[in-house]
């Protein structure tokens, strides 16, 4: 699933459409039985990556025993310096990655919130 989450270098038909570069993870989710209507890309996954973006594809399906499977894939590889803010540290105030945020780095905390 992680490999499928790595978006393709080009969108469909070789264009530069970021929204279709996630086609591998979308197909993977369909292959494991997630219906197309239950597969979602967050807004970051549809545009050119930035230092503070984190592209995510997720879906859900009900398993035969009634449990719900929620596959979540974070965009990786060929991501054009996306989420380079992952090592941004806070100053310890509020929930900015300092002590109040249970020791999380601000970049990780911000991205976890986005996911």
Strand order of the largest sheet: 1-2-5
Alpha-beta content class: alpha+beta
> Helical proportion?
10-25%
Mean model confidence by pLDDT: 79
The CA-CA distance between the termini, in Å, is 16 Å
Structure characteristics:
115 residues, alpha+beta, three-stranded antiparallel sheet, two-stranded antiparallel sheet, 5 strands, flat
Provide a descriptive summary of the structure in words.
- The chain is of the alpha+beta class and 115 residues long.
- It folds into 2 domains: 77 residues, no CATH class; 33 residues, no CATH class.
- Helix content is 19%, strand content 12%.
- It contains 3 helices and 5 strands.
- The strands form 2 sheets. Strands 1-2-5 form a 3-stranded antiparallel sheet. The chain has a two-stranded antiparallel ribbon with strand order 3-4.
- Strand 3 and strand 4 form a beta hairpin.
- The longest helix is centred in the first third of the chain and has 9 residues.
- About 4% of the residues have low confidence.
């Amino acid at each position: 699933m992680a490999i499928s989450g790595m978006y393709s270098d080009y969108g469909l038909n070789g264009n530069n459409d970021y929204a279709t570069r996630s086609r591998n993870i979308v197909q993977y989710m369909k292959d494991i039985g997630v219906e197309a209507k239950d597969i979602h890309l967050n807004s970051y996954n549809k545009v050119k990556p930035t230092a503070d973006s984190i592209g995510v594809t997720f879906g859900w399906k009900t398993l035969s025993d009634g449990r719900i499977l929620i596959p979540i894939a974070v965009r990786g590889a060929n991501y054009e310096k996306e989420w380079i803010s992952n090592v941004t540290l806070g100053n310890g105030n509020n929930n900015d990655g300092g002590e109040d945020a249970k020791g999380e780095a601000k970049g990780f905390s911000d991205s976890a919130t986005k996911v």
